[in-house]
Amino acid sequence: MVCLRPDSPLAARPTxxxxxxxxxxEPLIVMRSGYLMHRFIHxxxxxxxxxxxxxxxxxxxxxxxxxxxxxxxxxxxxSVIGDPLERGGAITHRxxxxxxxxxxxxxxxxxxxxSVPRAVRDLHQLFVRRAGTPTAP
Length: 137
Hints:
By secondary structure, the protein is of the alpha/beta class. It has helices spanning 18-22, 36-45, 59-67, 77-80, 84-87, 118-131; strands at 2-4, 28-31, 53-56, 72-74, 92-94.
């Protein structure tokens, strides 16, 4: 999903397309090489380069940069929805246009023998609950 400020012109749209991210109206904040979202953005943009972009070392800094008005970024929904900056109104989100979204797959691996630690069980239950919760705006 696209993370942006509520006063961004893109926030008035129901969805944001890859074309919107490279048209130069707003700088694109991308994760540096080595991050999963860096690869996702490159696949999404299909070789196109934004006219201006920033690079950051993670989602938290990306969201802060968005809140400060430096541009927009693309992050997984679980990284934006419910974030203190989102709850406080400093950032908001819009889905990527049809056909430009992705699916997040999380896997918990456990030993074949022995008990499963409580922290792992709790995390698994949280993931199962969240997986059934729609997150679209």
